Amino acid sequence: MRWVPLTLILFFTVISAINIYKKQTATLNRSFSLIGVVYLMLLEIIVFTPISFDGSQIYVMSAGIGKVNLFQLDVFELGFFENILLTVPLGMFIKAYFNDISLSDTAIIGLFVGSWIEIAQYYLSHAFLINRSSDINDVIANALGIVVGAVVVKTVVNLLKRNQRVPELTALID
Fold this sequence. Notes:
Number of helices: 6
Distance between the termini: 43 Å
Strand content: 5-15%
Structural class: mainly alpha
Strand order of the largest sheet: 1-2
Helix content: over 70%
Order of helices and strands: HHEEEHHEHH
């Protein structure tokens, strides 16, 4: 029962990849989309399954319901920065696909995404014993990572437009 989330993640990843491969004809768009699907699969595995990574090793967490932290802020620990790094690519994909949204809107999206992840972890921990903790620090770190990713894309697009060196990449991101 603990592996139901992993099974669903892998199933929907395969379906998505097949769909992208069949429907996307432009190589650059197809590659960008497939990289996005693989990233989302890995993010979902790290976040919604008992498989964990502590910086040096991958391991399976014991069965349990995890903890909840809604009040204690601890933004100067390694896990906080790991969560920021984990969601930077997500912010890049959001900004690349929805380039008209502002950075403040991206921050709001980041807070919603971070909140959704933590709520889903709470539910999945109770339903499937994946032993994931729900933490306010993770919500903040996820939002920051998404904003950082959006800033990176915005900066790269502005540099590419200024230099006009890679027009097909600029057209993809625009």
